[in-house]
Amino acid sequence: MEFTVPWASLFGGMLLGVSASILLLFNGKIAGISGIVSGLLKNKVGDKGWRWLFVLGLIAGGLLGTTAFGATIPTSYDSQLWVLLLGGLLVGIGTKIGNGCTSGHGICGIGRLSKRSLVATCVFMLVAGVTVFVRLHLLG
Fold this sequence. Notes:
The chain is an all-alpha fold and 140 residues long. 72% of the residues lie in helices and 0% in strands. The chain has 6 helices and no strands.
């Protein structure tokens, strides 16, 4: 295995941090994706415009990124549709139970010095590490 410095990932992470800070500073809103999207499903008047713009910006940024860097969007998957849908449902349930998603706690929560987000992010990382270890060393 060869180590290379992931400059694009570092730059992308910096952009995420800056954008989350700008949204909090100028709008007083937290850039947690699960909270933003779930807010679109609620009947709160006057709170949807910025949420739609944020989601459209995510989509446009992804499309722009694939164009700018020559990446491709997957069109086929190794799993069956029901497995993908079940995985998405479980992620949604976990996000609701955990009061936010992994990136929301990691980027926005820790940035606001939230103890809950610090603990949640540490648990996420620990479980990810154990999962990789089990997958690579115990399941072969």
